[in-house]
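note to self: dont lose this again. the chain is below, predicted strucutre after it. 109 aa total, dont forget to put it in the shared folder this time
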Amino acid sequence: MRKNKREVALNQVDQLLTELFDELTSAKAKAAVQRAYNTIHRQKSLNMSYKMVPDAITTLKKEFSHLSLTKQVRFTRAQEELVSRLTVFTRKAFQHGFEGLMFINVWSG
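---
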């Protein structure tokens, strides 16, 4: 049962990353999404892939922030909404109990 929940959560993250990738027009932003996907799926086991999701999404958001602040990419409202959906889903599905409190600055910032 636990394995099935993890598979469903990983599939949802994959779907959101795919939607985001398809929505983007910037090659640099697409490369950041691809790196996040590769970070998650580089792992050989489902458990390791599952554990990599929060770090991969955090890194993706940092890269997007850098691209936006340096004015290399201007994100549309739809793209920002996808990033928000990805962030909220990841926060709910992948952080449990006190472990989630360690990332409070990442999620709220």
